């Protein structure tokens, strides 16, 4: 039951104990880039979302995300002129296949760790939320 009347000065000066949020730091085995991915992902969830039992999934996610970034860089710098001969076509095709595999793996790991939008809503809630969104640019967004 709540205390009636005014609160005493002493009760107002005592700060409630607040447990600090402690996020798991990136493992030492990760590269700097993978560690930054780790920190970005863990920052999107509550501090207790990732436990020791999901470490390996998150490490794999960071690993695959960094590999996908390397493949994306290769594809972004691929010269269309190279597509005119067979070796260039084969290289391009191989890069696309590898990137697709990384994307599928990232998607599966994301679902396993419940990182996707799909895990935040059931189909009814998602539909209702989508219907409530205004179409187009809002007036204050210019």
Produce a short descriptive summary.
The protein is mainly alpha-helical. It has five helices and no strands.
Overall body shape = elongated
Q: Helical percent range?
A: 40-55%
Q: What is the straight-line distance between the termini? A: 51 Å
The proportion of strand residues reads: under 5%
Major beta-sheet overview: none
- The unreliable regions are none
Q: Give me the oligomer status.
A: single chain
What structural class do helix, strand and pairing data support? Answer: mainly alpha
Tally of DSSP helical segments: 5
Round the Cα radius of gyration to an integer and report it.
24 Å
Write down the secondary-structure element order.
HHHHH
- Total strands: the figure is 0
Mean pLDDT: 84
3D architecture notes:
The chain has a domain at 52-117. The chain has helices at residues 9-13, 32-43, 55-76, 86-112, 123-132. It contains 5 helices and no strands. Helices cover 54% and strands 0% of the residues. It is elongated, with a radius of gyration of 24 Å.
Features:
142 residues, mainly alpha, 0% strand, elongated
Topology readout:
Elements lengths: L8 H5 L18 H12 L11 H22 L9 H27 L10 H10 L10
């Amino acid at each position: 039951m709540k205390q009636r009347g005014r609160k005493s000065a002493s009760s107002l000066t005592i700060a409630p104990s607040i447990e600090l949020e402690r996020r798991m730091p990136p493992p030492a085995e990760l590269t700097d880039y993978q560690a930054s991915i780790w920190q970005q992902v863990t920052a999107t969830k509550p501090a207790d979302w990732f436990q020791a039992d999901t470490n390996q999934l998150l490490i794999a996610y960071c690993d695959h995300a960094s590999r996908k970034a390397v493949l994306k860089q290769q594809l972004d710098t691929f010269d269309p002129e190279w597509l005119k001969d067979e070796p260039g076509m084969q290289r391009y095709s191989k890069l696309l296949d590898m990137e697709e595999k990384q994307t599928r793996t990232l998607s599966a790991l994301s679902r396993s760790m419940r990182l996707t939008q799909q895990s935040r809503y059931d189909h009814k809630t998602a539909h209702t939320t989508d219907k409530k969104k205004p179409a187009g640019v809002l007036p204050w967004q210019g």
